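Methods: example folding runs. The two proteins below were folded one after another, and each record is reproduced exactly as written to the output file, sequence line first and structure-token line second.
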Amino acid sequence: ITIFQLNSTFKFSFDDLYGTPTDYYYKIVHCTKDWKMSNIRVTEYLKGMNDLRISNYEPSFNTLQNFVHYELTLPNRDTNLICSGNYLIEIYNQENEKILERKFVLYEDIVNVAMEMKKTRNLDVTAAKQNAYLSVNFGETNLINPKKNVGLVLLQNGQWYNAITNIQPQYILGSEFKYQYDEETSFWGGNEYLHFDNSNIRNVNNYVEKSFLGDLYQTYLRLRTPSVNNFYTYYFDVNGSFKPRNQMREIADVEADYAWVYFEYRLPKLPADQKLFVVGMFNDYQLLNQFEMIYDDQSDNYKGAILLKQGYTDYKYVIAKNDGTILDELNPEGNFYETNNEYHALIYYKSDSDRYDRVIGLGKADSKLITN
């Protein structure tokens, strides 16, 4: 999850598969709570320099796929972020072309946020949804017109595509906001993430059917068929994360190789206005062409291939409309209230005199502790 306390240290890294060291530059952009560029100047949210070259990089070692691993630690001696809020980190090449960007959030630990997960009281979806109850206590913190100026964002497993926003408190008791809705703060439970581990890239296992060496390693996952009984079965996952790893080497950042991973999923052909994608934190849940599964008429299965770094990878299949809207209610693996999901509540504050959205509190909950 890319949520960090203000003034804490965190790292951002990426690989360049061209394999030749080059100059990349980073820019930090402060955003509003709805991810538009904020109106404050760079000098108001950043102490030091912006648009700097990433100087920490290392070429791959003993891999078939040559790459250069770049790493940036924030804050550092040149860049120190002094405001909470939503941020984008943007990476540019020597031609000043933006090659990637990632979201992250810095929060201040000012207000107390108590959060718990409950089954929804809507009997039509009680077996499929998880509902968040929250209590936000401002204590002695002096906030101007908090009912108007305080905002709430709820996240499931760090995903922004299905974030719940613009929820007003249901009750206000002195300096405490309570959110105890039956519908407005509920998420589709989904199912546990699928996963595979090719950290020993030559071996097969429960999820890898075969692996062989071509120009690069080729990892074929076993055909996945969703349960026809539509019941929940627990198995361990890490809520969408991935961990580069090579069992035969020590430094995964530069010694974990890349492999073409072949996915195959048995699902009836979707309507023309829907598509199937493979997503997870490994691709930041992006619905790009290279992550789309294509229906194969001969096998009646969906197939796709993605070049991924060797290691442990959580992933899931999602159905999306052609406009990019993910349809969680159509999760092909089903929706279950028992699914183990991680939830975060971000508390935003911006008074009439403030020029940016602060994040003044963070709540956390795990649905494995869900109650009625």
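Second run, written to the same file directly after the first:
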Amino acid sequence: LNMWIPFLCLALGVAIGMSRYSSPLVRYMDGIIHAGLIILMLTLGAKIGSDSDLLSSLGLIGFRCTVIAAFAISGSVGFTWLLEKTLLPLKEVKKQLENINLSDKTEIVKEEEPGSSLLLWLMPACIFLGLLAGALIPGPWILWLDDGLMFSLIVLYVGVGLSFGTNQGVFRYLKILNWRILLISLTVVIGSLIGGAIAGLLLGMPIFISTGAAAGMTYYSLTGAVLTQLYGIEAGAYGFLVNVARELLTILFLPLLIRISPGSPIAAGASANMDVLLVPITKFVGMELGIVTLITGTVLTLVVPLLLSLLAYLGPAMFGSL
């Protein structure tokens, strides 16, 4: 994966999203992104299924992924809690927003579209079908999987940029909330990376793999694809499963996280705050902090591809190679 491809694709997506042609293109782009995700899930599943050694060690990998996800969540929550106790008390931010008349505040959090819910069921099904296909695919056909992986990555990068370019309205709330709100995204990134590194040390695995997986911050599709391209399918399995586990653990522990602090559910949800986790987290933190949740998720969704690209080249040099 060339280091500049993510930046070029993101820039292209942002340019399209900010152009006057974005409205008609967005309708088609959603379908293209969904198709890219399906191809990605099938490809990842097939690559796992074609590796007998990896298949036999999925139990151990699943355990390690859960541990890495738990440490990434703990790091993000811990640093965000410190931020709330010092520079950014979210309880005061919530009171501030309660007293401000935001005409479209109730439009910030909408129910998930049927297509999104269907996709959540479709992606695991595609992974399973890919596993079966990978076990049956003749050797020469496996070479085509890399092309499918590259295609889906390009689609996802452009899609992230497009989403960012068409959702600039989200950032008008920064004028009301103050730019300190962006510090939440920073604490989530720092906490995820440190948590991933600590988990890697404890598990006795390459730290740049555990850190790279934790850097996905619930963006499992992109993280799995990038790590597969860079380090092979086993690393890709970590990238995918760590972030699936993080999303599931966030949902399971929302009642506990909200007791820690208002920002803890937001920190745990990370990039998924922009879509899948926006509704459930907002139900716990309240409509006002739902705006903060959306901003954080939007920022992290843009940061993840850039962060993965940087770690791809800095990680082995900093932590050693496989």
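Comment on the second run: Residues 287-319 form the longest helix (33 residues).
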